[in-house]
Amino acid sequence: MAKVHYFQRYSVKENLVTNNTLLLFSQIYSYKEEYLETMLGEINDELEVPIGLNFEQQVAGENSVPDGVIEQNSFKILIETKRGKSFRENQLKKHMNGFGDEKYKVLLVITTSENSTQKKRDLINFAKKKDIQLVFTTFNSIISAAREIFNEHEYEMKDLVSDYEEFCHDSNLLPRHEYRMIAFPCGSSYKENIEYGLYYEPSGRSFRDHRYLGIYNNKTIKAIGEVKKHVIVKFEDEEVEILSDNNINEEERKRILAAYMEAKNKRGWNLSKHRFYLVDEIYETEYKKVSPGGMRGKQYFDLGNILEKEELPETEQVATLLREEVWE
């Protein structure tokens, strides 16, 4: 059965990315106004936009002291989205003319990746002189900021963010696959996943590029490996037939078949037409989830952001470094 999406996919309109990004913002605002304010602060520490009503009492006016006041600060946020990392200086300066006498003026420029340039710094300084907060960010940062604001039990809103992330990936807006780890919750198959250095799931499930595989069990990612291949497999009388483009060697075939037989004999699972993720080496780690509840389904992690590294070391060292980190 095809998954129902929150965000439109099937369109050739150039403004689809902007529409879906605005939809994400509006859904968060509709859910809780203060969440959008918090999210903007997560995007940029210096970004100040008070959103929502203020309730105060006994506030002195010019000639009187009313018992209570309800007011809302005026603000305006202009958004420019780009499918790459470049932007046009003249276009952004023209956007700045779109502000009026708002108290808080924000021009948010969303691109696919960060690029620190003198042109960007000059534009930020130019905007400050006009009392405008010019903020450059990425789609990945938008997703990370949105994830931060929701509690563990707010499942529907967390699913909303996940669907926006999937849309961004499908639209080639998240070019950080070299940092990305896909982690799967493993229950009864946990030991086999570790032993054979693989994971499997139905091939019809969503798939996005990644570099690492994480094995999760009991609120902890306990092993990590670099993914060398992912293949869709069909089984016939203990024969392995590859239905995708990648080929496998004899050692990989034996691992896949061993996992298939154990799943079939121990649990009655049929893994035919499943996608198998294969790693050459798998390393133990202890990347613990500290918030209440377990991980709901597979989840993606940006190891570059988590470890604060522009270039990741060898996978064994990544596993060691993750022992010093926790996640919520």
Keywords summarizing the entry:
328 residues; alpha/beta; 2 domains; eight-stranded mixed sheet; three-stranded parallel sheet; 10 helices
Strand content: 25-35%
Number of helices: 10
Give the integer mean of the pLDDT values: 87
Domain count: the total is 2
Q: Report the principal-axis shape.
A: elongated
| Uncertain spans | none
Elements, N to C (H/E): HHEEEHEHEHHEHEEEEHEEHHE
Q: How many angstroms does the end-to-end distance come to?
A: 31 Å
Structural class designation: alpha/beta
Task: Please compute the radius of gyration using only Cα atoms.
Answer: 24 Å
Percent of residues in helices comes to: 25-40%
* Largest β sheet strand count, sense and barrel closure: 8 strands, mixed
Number of strands: 13
Describe the protein.
The chain is 34% helix and 28% strand. By secondary structure, it is of the alpha/beta class. The protein has 2 domains: 16-143, no CATH class; 177-327, no CATH class. Strands 6, 7, 8, 9, 10, 11, 12 and 13 form an 8-stranded mixed beta sheet that branches. The chain has a 3-stranded parallel beta sheet with strand order 3-4-5. Strands 1-2 form a two-stranded antiparallel ribbon. Strand 8 (212-217) and strand 9 (220-236) form a beta hairpin. The longest helix has 18 residues, at 250-267. The mean pLDDT is 87.
